[in-house]
Amino acid sequence: MSLRPAPLTGIRVLDLTRVLAGPWCTQNLADLGAEVIKIERPGTGDDTRSWGPPYIKDASGQDTTEAAYYASANRNKKSVAIDIASERGAELVRKLAAKCDILVENFKVGGLRKYGLDYESMQAINPALIYCSITGFGQTGPYASRPGYDFMIQGMGGLMSITGEHDGLPGGGPQKAGVAVADLMTGMYSVVGILAALHERDRSGLGQHIDMALLDCQVAMLANQNLNYLTTGVAPKRAGNAHQNLVPYQVFAVADGHLIVAVGNDSQFRAYCQVIERPGLPDDIRFSTNPNRVINRDVLVPMLADAMKSQSRDYWLEALERAGVPAGPINTIDQVYSDPQVQARGMRQDLPHSIAGTAPVGASPLRFSGSPVSYRHAAPLLGEHTEQVLREQLGLSDEEIRQLTQ
Question: Known Pfam families for this protein (predicted)?
Fold first, then answer.
């Protein structure tokens, strides 16, 4: 079958974001085929350009000047170096916004007003523009003027209160996630909001302002833990690698390491007990149903832990898979990329890069049968597309571009 263009082909995005939440949003739009024009500060660019090492390697294995952090969230974009603090620079950005479908920014609340780049100014120029603002705390509320960063939001938003080992055990205490999940989830929620606004624009012909806050997204993504609290009035606590609502659903030590067992229902528990040679446990009223297992986890789990120590990780993985019991290893990231399933799904891509030749990226997880994700190039050099965009989109002459970029 012939493939169609990527879903957002023909959509143009003006990207005034930096660091992670905003760039993650716009990278996803770019992967979906949108033309993303990233405006960067001349000379320095996105803050994360300097967040190294590590750096992208060139063909000889030597470091380039391109930070891996920056490269992780900016593929498929065009970089245009313009000083928005200058009158001429702000004017050019306004002209670009007039030709765009979407604008994404993550400046402080009100921070773009002095440049005439706020939502009200942009709406007057382009009523169909979808304008997405990403901040720590949103456009309203007592914290609206505060800066917000992922680490502090994970703490304020409750995630660190439920992440990590039990307080009374070695290693207990507050723990952040291993990646900036508040930033990443805000970026993803922003994509959802933008796509919804694009669909609504098909009916109304009008754009709108989307107000995204890291704290809002962090609270929303607590999911079942929100309801664990809201239905009981009792705040959940850290449970290590155990699940608050399922037993057994945790890490077990085995003869040569560790293994995750994720029993999701009573039939799986019965099968699991057969594999570990404890067939009588499901007939015990204390363990016969998941609610009873949750209530009696302190009695049950030590029995299971003792049984799991008797065999190796690979033995259990094979036996549990054969019995239909969900289980998995705890891989390091190098092991992740060596996993045949990850390789079969193409989760590593190597894209053209202006100075490295090619650069690796972690692929998009989106799979379309008819209009696949578009991989065009790795993250751009600072200002790499300034001349191209200003000439093609705004019709600037070589002399005008030269004066601007001096």
Answer: CoA_transf_3
Report field, pTM of the whole predicted structure over 0.85 = yes
DSSP 212-238: EEHHHHHHHTTTHHHHHHHTTS-----
- Do 89 and 164 lie in one domain? The reply is yes
Q: Would you call 183 a catalytic residue per the annotation?
A: yes
Q: Which residues pair with 359 in a beta bridge?
A: 351
CATH number for the domain including 184? 3.40.50.10540
Structural domain boundaries enclosing 290: 249-335
Confidence of residue 233 (pLDDT cuts 50, 70, 90): very high
d(CA 387, CA 300): 67
Q: Quote the DSSP letter at residue 6.
A: P
The pLDDT of 378-395, averaged and rounded, is: 94
Catalytic residue, chosen from 118, 150, 183, 216, is 183
Determine which helix (DSSP H) or strand (DSSP E) holds 375, and give its type and residue range.
Answer: none
Asked if residue 129 lies in contact with residue 194, where contact means CB atoms within 8 angstroms, the answer is: no
User: Quick check: 32 pLDDT over 90?
Assistant: yes
Q: Of 175, 124, 70, 92, which is closest to residue 386 (Cα–Cα)?
A: 92
Run of H or E including 257: strand 257-262
Strand segments (E) across 20-173: 35-40, 55-57, 63-67, 77-81, 102-105, 130-135
**What's the whole-number average pLDDT of the chain?**
95
Cα–Cα distance list, 392 to 31, 36, 76, 188, 335 (Å)? 22, 14, 18, 30, 45
Q: What is the dihedral of CA 152, 157, 162, 166, to 10 degrees?
A: 50
